[in-house]
Design a protein that fits this description.
Blueprint (H helix, E strand, L loop, with lengths): L1 E6 L9 H26 L3 H28 L6 H4 L5 H12 L5 H21 L7 E7 L9 E7 L2 H4 L4 E3 L5 H14 L8 E9 L6 E9 L5
Parallel strand pairs: 4-5
Antiparallel strand pairs: 1-6, 2-3, 5-6
Helix pairs in contact: 1-2, 4-5, 5-7
């Protein structure tokens, strides 16, 4: 096990002028949103609150358009709602809403984290041409008469995607669901690949003029469940 600490200044030299422009646009939008957050948190007349909610909705829609622009120029970034059919977007929105809701308790939070990981698993490993890249599972069934029966199941071939991959965990509550997803990957792998884990702990310091972030990365050996 090893521990790596990465500060905010570690990104210096990697961000392009265009990256900085995008970040500046998002920062200004979020500042506008926080102005409305203050009004919503203070309470008041329903008409005032409704007006601020509309402002927040408009701001977040604008943020979404900016993020779409960013992702178009960075094909390596995959966003669930940008990569999937519209019919699945409601499910994603509901799960995210539950994760972000202050009323969501710990057990419920872990459940929706697992749901989100399952959705990401489908996006990453099942979104393939059904006519290609298949593996086969041969499993023993409970049927033993007149002889022991076996079943054959086609599953996506994900071997080329998981070689030397690492399961990254950003939230403490996501560790158990990610372990379950790692087990899914092992089951899909033709040679039983078990992912190692990278556990991230992110601390933000808003007290300074220039925001600083410390990212603690702990690389672990494979975790078995």
């Amino acid at each position: 096990m090893s521990k790596v600490v990465v500060g905010a200044d570690s990104l210096d030299g990697y961000l392009t002028e265009k990256d900085i422009t995008y970040l500046d646009r998002m920062d200004k939008l979020y500042i506008r949103a926080m102005d409305s957050f203050k009004i919503l948190a203070a309470g008041g007349f329903s008409s005032t609150l409704a007006n601020e909610e509309k402002k927040v909705i408009d701001i977040f829609n604008e943020m979404g358009h900016v993020m779409q622009d960013i992702c178009k120029e960075a094909p390596g970034i995959k966003v669930y709602s940008f990569e999937t059919e519209k019919e699945s977007h409601a499910e994603a929105s509901r799960v995210i809403a539950k994760l972000r809701d202050i009323r969501t308790g710990h057990n419920e939070f872990v459940y929706y984290i697992q749901r989100s990981y399952e959705m990401l698993f489908r996006l990453a490993f099942n979104n393939q041409d059904h006519s290609e890249n298949k593996n086969y599972l041969v499993v023993k069934t409970p049927v033993t008469a007149p002889i022991q029966n076996y079943a054959v199941h086609k599953i996506p071939d994900i071997d080329y995607k998981i070689e030397n991959s690492v399961m990254c965990v950003l939230l403490r509550g996501a560790l158990l669901p990610s372990m379950i997803m790692s087990k899914e990957i092992e089951e899909y792998s033709s040679h039983g690949y078990v992912t190692p884990f990278a556990l991230f702990k992110i601390k933000r310091n808003d007290s300074k003029k220039k925001k600083t972030w410390n990212i603690f990365l702990i690389l672990t050996d494979r975790i078995s469940i």
